[in-house]
Design goal:
With 733 residues, the protein is mainly beta. It has two domains: 40 residues; 548 residues, TonB-dependent receptor, beta-barrel domain (Maltoporin, Chain A). The strands form eight sheets. It has a 25-stranded antiparallel β-sheet that branches. Helix 1 packs antiparallel against helix 2. The longest helix has 19 residues. The two termini are 32 Å apart.
Length: 733
């Protein structure tokens, strides 16, 4: 003990006497922790570390990640327990190579992109499949939201990257599968509370009990933050859920749940270059360049899910039925969306897994079908802002989110039906071949009556376009072929070819039609190969890929209006690595690295030129060969964790990224940062636990997103969160 405390004393004394840069501080934290722990505790064999998690996302059957012929990451309970889990971002940020997730308000409103997919989303999640316990929490048109999810009730998160997993329908970027705790899990009954700076507090409780063949679990969570470093940036959420499990003999399991969420989220808007410079100087951003200063997204959500697992000989049947409904109040650019009732989503998924032998080769088969419908009953309403400030006829500021005149009324039905099939065979020892096919059809039936509209060019309300009707179908094919070879007992080699279509969402379809265009579904053909290694106390994943994208749906801003068009071709190339090593002393170190090269193979961008007398002329500008904007070429992530038998534990992690182009014209690069560091320290003793977490330890002032409009006249910055402190106390029972 004297040696241990002496090392710690000398470390702290030297730190106080030396003027460290942020980089040196991080190096001391990362490399000092393993050194200290090696003195604090002598290595002992103990239980070997297990790094090969079980995944069900890519293939719909349980496989270790080493056996999955696709890029996949599993964020497990250990990682989740080391972070504060104020939102899903806290668990997966940096941990998953190829994925970029950012938030400027500690809320669920995270911008997510995987290998460049999802960049065009103004809000919500696009091009990436979101699942909660096997249930899509996105609409059939690929628009998803994370306000369905209680971050405190998450067991693990599985992330596949690129097209090819068997769950995805109409999305080509990948899948984020959030798996909550089972009703039969009575090991995590807890009461936990937390407080922090920026007016933040949280509370969570879970109580589960197994009664013979039955199990019940109740969860309740509350999160709130004032986020007063920015104007109009408050967030609060309340989640409550009840789960029931029923074990019907040895071969049948039924689990059902109902959850309710009430979420209120203010959207603070973007900063101009001058406002961003003031934020860099002061650490506060109490203004926005956007006229819409009262934007928000407030939602109420009811989520119901029931799934059955039944074993019958070599078959495992897994049918699922689900229903969710939500309503929202959503002031945005030019309009206030206020649903006069509920938007609904109903779905059925019928799945069967079969273990068999084909032509003497051992194998397995997954087969199934799905159908779901998203609809409302003529209750999607848009209103004008009534409290506004004008100058020269333009709206320059809103004073409230009070509703004015009705802009439009809409109704829609969005259907998806699909079938899927996977055959896995082992023709020779050590070799597995996967052949997969999925076909889906998505249909839109939209009717919108527009009485007046916001004219982006004029900056004021103008007469509406009247009745708009859209009926459109998209056929989506997703074949895949893959091989996995067990080179050694510890290392697998895999190669895969997969294709998927990305369907446009209903808003993009309407946007294109309003401006005299039509949108095609984009096609993504992905070639991928890699190595996966799993040892007693180490693991690594090394992946390279090339993706050819045709008719990619991209967005650009013109005259303050976001427009959607199909790019002719896009080429994506990348290299991804993740590895970790666990010492017997209780220390684990890990790192990820991502290199991404995204280019427009062929793109013509319409650009409006304003001439004498305010005469507008539209020209087409060739952007072929340019880099796709707003996704960094390089990203890195490094972490160290330590767990002591006495109950002390800690984690330090840092990440960074290179600059990226901020427009299709590639006129300017911004957005890079380095050594953005988080620190967690905790102590667990019997039933009690305490934890202290610091996000952005060095209080860096950076941008989570930077973009420039097509004309180059407007640059928009979204600032990152300042240093955020949270302390937690928990009691497990």
């Amino acid at each position: 003990m004297q040696v241990r405390m002496g090392v710690l004393y000398r470390f702290v004394r030297r730190a106080r006497q030396t003027k460290f840069s942020e980089r040196r501080w991080f190096l001391y934290l990362v490399f000092g922790l393993p050194a200290f722990s090696s003195i604090a505790q002598q290595p002992s064999p103990g239980q070997p570390a297990q790094f090969d998690a079980i995944s069900v996302t890519a293939t719909r059957e349980a496989r270790t990640t080493k056996e999955v012929p696709q890029s996949i990451s599993v964020v497990d309970e250990k990682r989740i327990g080391d972070v504060r889990m104020f939102n899903i971002k806290d668990a997966i940020q940096g941990q998953v190579p190829g994925l970029r997730i950012e938030s400027n308000n500690n809320a669920y409103d995270a911008k997510i992109s995987i290998r460049g997919a999802g960049l065009k989303a103004a809000f919500g999640v696009r091009e990436i499949n979101l699942l909660r316990d096997g249930v899509p929490i996105l609409d059939p048109d690929s628009f998803g939201r994370l306000d369905f999810v209680d971050p405190d009730d998450v067991e693990r998160i599985e992330v596949t990257r690129g097209p090819g997993d068997l769950y995805s329908a109409g999305t080509a970027g990948g899948t984020i599968h959030i798996i909550s705790r089972s009703a039969f899990d009575d090991r995590h009954n807890v009461i936990r509370g937390g407080v922090g700076n920026l007016g933040s507090h949280s509370m969570h409780t879970r109580f589960g009990k197994v009664f013979g063949e039955h199990a019940l679990a109740f969860t309740f969570s509350r999160r709130h933050t004032d986020n007063d470093w920015r104007r109009h940036n408050r967030f609060s959420s309340t989640n409550a859920g009840l789960k029931h499990g029923w074990q019907l003999g040895e071969s049948t399991l039924l689990e059902s749940e109902v959850t309710y969420s009430d979420v209120k989220l203010d959207l603070p808007g973007s900063l101009s270059s001058e406002q961003y410079a003031r934020y860099r100087d002061t650490g506060k951003a109490l203004e926005t360049q956007d006229p819409w200063k009262n934007s928000a997204r407030n939602s109420s959500i009811l989520f119901i899910n029931s799934r059955l697992e039944h074993r019958a000989g070599a078959w495992l049947f897994k049918p699922r039925i689900y229903y969710n409904q939500w309503q929202q109040f959503h002031p945005v650019t030019g309009s206030i969306n206020d649903m006069n009732g509920w938007e609904r989503n109903f779905g059925i998924d019928l799945e069967g897994n079969h273990t068999h032998s084909l032509f003497g080769m051992p194998g397995s088969m997954v087969v199934g079908g799905t159908w779901r419908r998203n609809w409302n009953d003529n209750n999607a309403l848009q209103f004008a802002y009534t409290d506004v400030v004008t100058a020269g006829g333009r709206i320059v500021s809103t004073l409230s989110d009070r509703k004015g005149k009705l802009n439009s009324r809409s109704s829609f039905t969005n259907d998806l039906w699909g079938v899927y099939f996977l055959e896995s065979l082992s023709p020779v020892d050590r070799l597995t071949v996967d052949l997969q096919m999925r076909f889906d059809q998505v249909s839109f039936d939209i009717e919108r009556n527009e009485f007046q509209r916001y004219d982006f060019a004029a900056g004021r309300y103008a007469p509406g376009r009247g009745l708009l009707q859209v009926k459109q179908n998209y056929d989506l094919f997703a074949p895949k072929a893959a091989v996995t070879y067990r080179a050694t007992d510890q290392i697998n080699v895999y190669a895969t070819v997969a294709h998927a279509n990305q369907v446009p969402d209903s808003g993009e379809v309407q946007n294109a039609i309003e401006f005299g265009r039509s949108l095609k579904s984009s096609g993504h053909l992905n070639y991928e190969a890699g190595f996966k290694g799993r040892g007693r106390n180490w693991s690594f994943d090394l992946t390279g890929y090339h993706t050819d994208v045709s008719n990619e749906i991209i967005s650009f801003v013109q005259n303050f209006q976001t427009l959607y068009v199909n790019a002719g071709k896009t080429n994506k190339n990348g290299f991804e690595f993740f590895g970790n090593y666990a010492f017997d002393s209780g220390v684990e170190v890990g790192a990820s690295y991502t290199y991404t090269d995204l280019k427009f193979g062929k793109l013509t961008e319409p650009l409006t030129i304003i001439g004498p007398g305010n005469q507008r002329t539209t020209i087409n500008v060739d952007r072929s060969g340019n880099q796709v904007p707003r996704f960094p070429e390089q990203m890195y992530f490094v972490y160290t964790t330590y767990r002591h038998p006495s109950g002390w534990h800690g984690r330090v992690e840092t990440r960074g990224q290179s600059n990226y182009f901020i427009d299709n014209a590639n006129t300017e690069q911004r957005g890079g940062y380095h050594f953005l560091t988080n620190l967690t320290v905790g102590y667990d003793r019997k039933h009690w636990g305490v934890m202290f977490n610091v996000q952005n330890l060095f209080d860096k002032r950076y941008a989570v997103d930077v973009s420039k409009d097509a004309a180059g006249s407007r640059t928009s910055f979204t600032p990152g969160m300042p240093r955020t402190l949270m302390g937690y106390v928990s009691y497990k029972f």
